[in-house]
UniProtKB/TrEMBL annotation:
Positions of FMN binding: 80-82, 109, 129, 157, 232, 254, 287-291, 310-311
CC cofactor: FMN
The FMN hydroxy acid dehydrogenase domain, residue ranges: 1-360
Family, as annotated: Belongs to the FMN-dependent alpha-hydroxy acid dehydrogenase family.
Stored InterPro entries: Aldolase_TIM, Alpha-hydoxy_acid_DH_FMN, FMN-dep_DH, FMN_HAD, FMN_hydac_DH_AS
Top-rank lineage group of the source organism: Bacteria
Protein name in UniProt: Alpha-hydroxy-acid oxidizing protein
SUPFAM superfamilies: FMN-linked oxidoreductases
Molecular functions per Gene Ontology: FMN binding; oxidoreductase activity, acting on CH-OH group of donors
Assigned keywords, A-Z: Flavoprotein, FMN, Oxidoreductase
Originating organism: Streptomyces coryli
Pfam short name (any one): FMN_dh
Residues of the active site: 256 (proton acceptor)
Positions contributing to glyoxylate binding: 131, 166, 256, 259
């Protein structure tokens, strides 16, 4: 399949599945436990229905908006995804180039297989994702490194005190190959050492990540950076309100793509519940399960400012490199414009006034 022949994001899912090694395919696709939340993310998005408005002039329909105060051509950012050199030799560089071309933010994972400096050197808007490490000083050093490299926001992921039990990886005894490493951590780690009855990545993150990250950690990071601060992994309205009170600039409503607590609420359901509780000063982004421009519109109608997209971009890179990731983003933009116009919305702000209901 060529990038140009793909007509929807799931075309890339099938193409990526046909070229990736089985264990890497499972690492990208899999969730935790019985994968109930992984499946529920899609099912919940499919239960959201929109009420389009008629007799509105949509001849000048635009997807342009802002994210974290910066103009973007559509309300989409690339989610942080670890170890992208598992799917392509260029890894994160392919996706970051595509993001720059599309004009959307690219989020560098702390577990990126390419250093942040190489990614920011490409230009474009770059955000940096952090996990809180057992060595909190190292966490803050990474935040400063990202700031010095030219990143424009920090995204602290708060739903991983340790890695969820991902049975596909456990059964595969998943291990990083020698040419792939966490570029911001040690050169070689337990992630490269096959473990008896476990995923090497789970063992590695269990050793590296702190399970005692708290709101005090958020406050410490807020004090140490001038960059916009985003908390990723929020599902409860009370946590969303506290995040806003803590001075964060945005939250990402996310269940980590179904890869952490199995049985956690679908992200779109959580969004509908918590969005009314947040002040306008705190942006809301949605992550987990976005597969089309119509999904983006549903998120906007339920209160999000935009969305993060992860797996589809990785499918694009796996199937066709930078051109594949670029086609994924082009399709999302075209689909969103189509959905906006057909719903009677000429702009993203108009979409946020659209009525949506969740069929049970």
């Amino acid at each position: 399949m060529t990038a140009e022949s793909a007509q929807c994001l799931t075309d890339f899912e099938r193409a990526a599945a046909s070229v990736l090694p089985a264990d890497v395919r499972d690492f990208v696709a899999g969730g935790s436990g019985a994968e109930l939340t992984l499946d529920a993310n899609r099912a919940a998005l499919d239960r959201v229905f929109l009420v389009p408005r008629m007799l509105r002039d949509v001849s000048h329909c635009t997807t342009r908006t802002t994210l974290l105060g910066r103009p973007v051509p559509m309300p989409v950012a690339i989610a942080p995804v670890a170890y992208q050199r598992l799917v392509s030799p260029d890894g994160e560089l392919a996706a970051a180039r595509a993001a720059k071309e599309a004009g959307v933010p690219f989020t560098v994972s702390m577990l990126s297989s390419v250093p942040v400096e190489e990614i920011t050197a490409l230009g474009g808007t770059v955000w940096f994702q952090l996990y809180w490490l057992r060595d909190s000083a190292q966490t803050l050093r990474l935040a400063h490194r990202a700031e010095e490299a030219g990143c424009e926001a920090l995204v602290l992921t708060v739903d991983v005190p340790w890695m969820g039990r991902r049975l596909r990886d456990v059964r595969n005894r998943f291990t990083l190959p020698g040419h792939v490493r966490a570029a911001h951590l040690e050169a070689r780690s337990t992630a490269h050492q096959r473990q008896a009855g476990d995923s090497a990545l789970a063992v590695h993150t269990g050793q590296a990540f702190s399970s005692s990250v708290t709101w005090e950690s958020v406050a410490a990071l807020r004090e140490q950076t001038r960059l916009p601060l985003v908390l990723k992994g929020i599902l409860a309205p009370a946590d969303a309100v506290r995040a806003a009170e803590s001075g964060v600039d945005a939250i990402v409503v996310s269940n980590h793509g179904g890869r952490q607590l199995d049985g956690a609420a679908p992200s779109i359901d959580a969004l509908a519940e918590l969005a009314p509780a947040l002040p306008a000063s705190c942006e809301i982004l949605l992550d987990s399960g976005i597969r089309s421009g119509t999904d983006v519109l549903k998120a906007l109608a339920l209160g999000a400012s935009g969305v993060l997209v992860g797996r589809p971009v990785i499918w694009g890179v796996a199937a066709a490199g930078e051109a594949g990731a670029r086609r994924v983003l082009d399709l999302l933009g075209a689909e969103l414009r189509d959905a906006l116009g057909l719903s009677g919305c000429g702009s993203v702000p108009a979409a946020r006034q659209l009525r949506a209901y969740q069929k049970r």
